[in-house]
């Protein structure tokens, strides 16, 4: 349904000579991706408003989406699977943070393990992205730097005595990225070096 809507809009743009006919496929892909992200993030934000967790959710999304963009990790095959998986994962994150907020040592212990995972693996080269060696190296470097920056922010928030619920959501974002990296590695959902050429 989303793809049909995007195709209709792009066809209309091509007829109005707003875009080149040859670039239609690119515009459809981009529009579908944007619509899927809007629907998914919109659903999460709506849930967070309904359960009065908008600010912690905003911290979670900021940290998670920034790091996930650079680390990659496990991907599902269809938008519906991804949407459902993302919403269910978000609900699990909410529940987990409600429990972990009372156990800061556990949060920081898990965060330390996650940091090690992100620093060692860096990025998973998913077949749909298929980065070359230079792109992969830059992505790994960016993921490691961003992870360090996010951890410094978490540490600063903690030192300043910020609400543990916010700290927990930020930490769980990094932990979730590390978990998705591991799942992708375990399931071999990546381009191997000998497949790069």
UniProtKB/TrEMBL annotation:
Keywords noted in UniProt: Cell membrane, Hydrolase, Membrane, Protease, Quorum sensing, Transmembrane, Transmembrane helix
Protein's GO biological process: proteolysis; quorum sensing
GO cellular component, one term: membrane
Transmembrane annotation, as ranges: 38-67, 79-101, 107-129, 141-158, 164-184
Pfam families per the UniProt record, alphabetical: AgrB (PF04647)
Molecular function, one GO term: peptidase activity
Protein origin, superkingdom: Bacteria
Keyword Transmembrane helix found: yes
Name of protein: Membrane protein putatively involved in post-translational modification of the autoinducing quorum-sensing peptide
Native source species: Agathobacter rectalis CAG:36
């Amino acid at each position: 349904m989303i793809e049909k809507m995007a195709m209709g809009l792009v066809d209309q743009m091509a007829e109005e000579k707003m875009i080149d006919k040859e670039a239609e496929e690119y515009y459809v892909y981009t529009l579908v991706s944007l619509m899927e992200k809007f629907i998914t993030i919109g659903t999460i934000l709506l849930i967070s408003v309904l359960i009065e967790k908008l600010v912690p959710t905003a911290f979670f999304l900021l940290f998670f989406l920034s790091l996930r963009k650079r680390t990659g990790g496990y991907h599902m095959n269809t938008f519906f699977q991804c949407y459902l998986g993302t919403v269910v994962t978000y609900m699990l994150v909410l529940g987990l943070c409600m429990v972990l907020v009372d156990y800061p040592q556990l949060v920081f212990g898990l965060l330390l393990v996650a940091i090690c995972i992100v620093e060692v693996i860096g990025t998973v080269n998913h077949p749909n992205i298929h980065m070359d060696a230079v792109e992969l190296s830059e992505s790994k470097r960016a993921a490691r730097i961003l992870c360090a920056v996010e951890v410094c922010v978490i540490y600063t928030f903690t030192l300043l005595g910020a609400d543990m619920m916010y700290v927990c959501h930020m930490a769980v974002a990094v932990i979730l990225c590390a978990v998705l990296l591991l799942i992708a590695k375990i399931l071999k959902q990546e381009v191997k070096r000998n497949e790069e050429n």
